[in-house]
């Protein structure tokens, strides 16, 4: 079952725009490293999510026509990083994973790792 879920996520990434695939794989690797206690699966809306416990979503991956997305389902964590993210925060849980005038892609990757580490710390409490 876990292999089928991982294959579905791999298929999701492979079917994304080619220009986004490397970044999506990097986001996936960050999530899997920071949140090894989660289960990787596909949501009913057909995007990868990472669940903890009784199917609580804690993170996810998505795409738009413009860029890959990181979903951070913990509002408190996302709110703590809102100023650093600037206009890359999009909606309640979405972070556009692209460079902006305020944040380079490397800086955004660092911020993402910090957010995922904060989620991991909350899950271990």
* Tally of helical runs: 5
Q: Given the helix and strand composition, which structural class is it? A: alpha+beta
Specify Rg, calculated over alpha carbons: 14 Å
Instruction: Name the overall outline.
Output: globular
What is the mean predicted local confidence, pLDDT? 92
Strand order of the largest sheet: 1-2-3-4-6-5
Roughly how many Å apart are the termini?
A: 28 Å
Short structural summary:
This protein is an alpha+beta fold and 125 residues long.
Characterise the protein shown here.
This protein is of the alpha+beta class and 125 residues long. It has helices spanning 2-15, 18-34, 75-80, 82-85, 105-124, and strands at residues 39-42, 48-52, 56-63, 68-72, 89-90, 94-96. It has a single domain, classed as Aspartate Aminotransferase, domain 1 (Alpha-Beta Complex). It contains five helices and six strands.
Key words describing this protein structure:
125 residues; alpha+beta; Aspartate Aminotransferase, domain 1; 6-stranded antiparallel beta sheet; 6 strands; 22% strand
Helices and strands in order, then pairings?
Layout: H1 2-15, H2 18-34, E1 39-42, E2 48-52, E3 56-63, E4 68-72, H3 75-80, H4 82-85, E5 89-90, E6 94-96, H5 105-124
Antiparallel strand pairs: 1-2, 2-3, 3-4, 4-6, 5-6
Helix pairs in contact: 2-5
